[in-house]
Amino acid sequence: MVQSTVLGYPRVGTNRAAKKATEGYWAGKVTEQELQDAHKAIRKERWETLKEAGVDFIPSGGEYTLYDSLLDHSFNFGVIPQRFVDQKLSDVDTYFAMGRGHQDRAKGIDVAANEMGKFFDSNYHIVKVDHTADQEFTLKRNQALEEYEEAKALGIETRPVLFGPVTYLSLVRKARDAPADFKPIALLDKLLPIYVEVLESLKKAGAKEVQLDEQILVTDQGEALAAEFKKAYAELAKVGLPITLTTAYGRVGKSIEFIKDLPISTLHIDLDREPKQLDAVIAAIKPTKINLELGLISGRNIWKNDLNASKALAEKAVAELGSDRVRVGTSSSLLHTPLTIAVENKLTPEQLSWLSFAKEKAGEVTALAAALNGKESAAFEQNAKDIAARREFERTSDSAVRDRVAAITPEQLKRKAEFPVRREAQKAKLNLPKFPTTTIGSFPQTKEIRVARAKFGKGELTKEQYETAMEDEIKSVVAIQNRLGLDLLVHGEPERNDMVQYFGEQLTGFIFTQLGWVQSYGTRYVRPPIVVSDVSRPAPMTVRWSAYAQSVSEKPMKGMLTGPVTILNWSFPRADISKEVQSKQLALALRDEVVDLAEAGIRAIQVDEPAIREGLPLRREDWDAYLTWAVDSFRLSTSGVENDVQVHSHFCYSDFGDIFPHIQRLDADVISIEASKADLKLLDIFKQHGYSNEIGPGVYDIHSPRVPSEQEIKDRLKAFAEVIPADLLIVNPDCGLKTRAWKETEESLTNLVNAAKWARENLQ
Ligand code: MET
Ligand SMILES: [Zn+2]
């Protein structure tokens, strides 16, 4: 019998109950007991949903969390850096402080959070707790057991989940003051007894097996960890609780050579991302006793699964291994998908027929298992019809757009002249001082702005009234920038709800959910747009706002767009054509916008690409292919203008070290880049690679309300000027200011402008 599995499920709860309970607790409106009860109710709802769907292996334990599951593991293992211990907070407050920091001036509490990092190539962020070289572990809390028993008390048998020990240690951070050559993986021997203790307790409580997530196995780094895997799993196998080792987000590649020899009972592989790995994995494990769990239903996209295609793949495995050794399931946890399409009431029935969110995916998993067991359901037949209809829709959507992509020429990927020539033309046109000051685009999104947008949405404001309100805001933002003495101005982006959604709504080819929330980190949820068909731009999108802003400003105004790669990476892409083609469709639409902005008299245009790094494939051998189309897309979108138009780009959020040479290849005239984190890693990168165009490393961190002093900014500029020629330096904050309040914004920018004035006199 083929059985079914779901690796993990969204934590959001119906009506975003998780967010409400947790934020209510932070605000002091919900007691700790109410907080715990609310989360318990969400866990119950999740388990019951999966049980009703008929899933055989229902996850529990380490895949549910109040904030982040990697953080949970650290906390449960007693890894609580001293600075949190020192605050003497309650357990739950210590836990939240580790995730998001804690500041309570009245009580003298001020502690910064642990660092966050992107979880593999998803937009979900894990909290990476600092581990010292002499780190000790204790089982402070046995969450896997607690939640296994919690489900059992509800009459639901579950499969407890934990990060495997090797992946856990590969993802956490080393303490800043730890020796340079220390790596947390060196703590494996000390950590294993904790895992043994947990597994023993689960076995005693009656668990049938445990799910250990070892996603690190899909990275190049995983290949180098064979010895650690052997050691860890030999130890864990002694407990005698069957282990399902799961991989996700990519292919196991060469690592299958040692995985097949691990004493595990089941191996889970991602066949949504990497269907091609199936044959090699089957061949490797066939002579062993290892069962194979096929991750066929995507945990990453929102498309209805093509059940017939999945069934064909699964049948291959069944033919080789026998049905008792094969299971079917989700490719990864479903945490990257929204909860259910059932609550969407603005999408058309046709659109809904294309989609499948977490709850529907659980149904697909069981329908697939049933079909493999000879019980093809009505759902299966309907699925075939829906898939055929979607294919037809996609195929016929807009052939003109596809023709335009096919006709892209090498000339369209290049500016007319090289940077030095462009630079002279731009200097003459823009007439900016040395160390020019600018900002990244957005200014505070005040309550008034959001109220106006909400009213416009509800029809309480006419289009004209709304546009007047936005123009008034722009005018005021321009006046403030003039008063502060900034050089290259922005319109402030008041009209944008979100930097991706705003463009998606004006392009053809996108649809939007109302409640399709996906966790980004902690209680922060986003609603990614969905690309459903060929993308084009029916009309200019930003020109009227930028032109208005320029009309009320003597100083040059910078146009502001979100780049093609970022729009794509922060949306759910189509599955029928490559991301490359989708990105180029977006690039062509943006290219037209860039040209229109220039024609409207905008002399500097910024095309933001903050998400370019996170789309980077997990395996180095796949990097070139991605970076080639990503860089080409940016160039395609920005190369349609004359030499005297200054093209800017902006990056933030991540570690650019490994792709910095490709940032250079974007050939933007000016880039701004996040650099204000204390250790200034970026400077080393400049030293190593150099950079030939203009660059504005952020001089202060906008993620906190803290106002940087003038001296601090001077010091930053001085440090930058030591590695970057002074005449290439631009002065700007780290990122947009939309989440900030006006007071700190004005104070910070005053200091920034003064520091730039000082730099003009004092730095060469
Ligand atoms: C996440 S990058 C944000 C860039 C955008 N132009 C802003 O200023 O908000
Ligand atoms: Zn940014």
From TrEMBL:
CDD domains listed in its UniProt record: CIMS_C_terminal_like, CIMS_N_terminal_like
UniProt keyword terms in alphabetical order: Amino-acid biosynthesis, Metal-binding, Methionine biosynthesis, Methyltransferase, Transferase, Zinc
Annotated source species: Vanrija pseudolonga
Active site: H703
Cofactor note: Binds 2 Zn(2+) ions per subunit.
Top EC class of this enzyme: transferase
Binding site for 5-methyltetrahydropteroyltri-L-glutamate: K19, N123, W570
Signal sequence, renumbered to the chain: none
One term of GO molecular function: 5-methyltetrahydropteroyltriglutamate-homocysteine S-methyltransferase activity
UniProt superkingdom: Eukaryota
Family, per entry: Belongs to the vitamin-B12 independent methionine synthase family.
Pathway: Amino-acid biosynthesis; L-methionine biosynthesis via de novo pathway; L-methionine from L-homocysteine (MetE route): step 1/1
This protein's name: 5-methyltetrahydropteroyltriglutamate--homocysteine S-methyltransferase
Residue sites binding L-homocysteine per the record: I440, G441, S442, D608
Annotated EC: 2.1.1.14
Co-factor(s): Zn(2+)
Record-linked InterPro entries: Cbl-indep_Met_Synth_N, Cobalamin-indep_Met_synthase, Met_Synth_C/arc, UROD/MetE-like_sf
BP-aspect Gene Ontology terms: methionine biosynthetic process; methylation
Source lineage: Eukaryota, Fungi, Dikarya, Basidiomycota, Agaricomycotina
Span of domain Cobalamin-independent methionine synthase MetE C-terminal/archaeal: 435-757
Keyword Cell membrane carried by entry: no
Binding site for L-methionine: I440, G441, S442, E493, D608
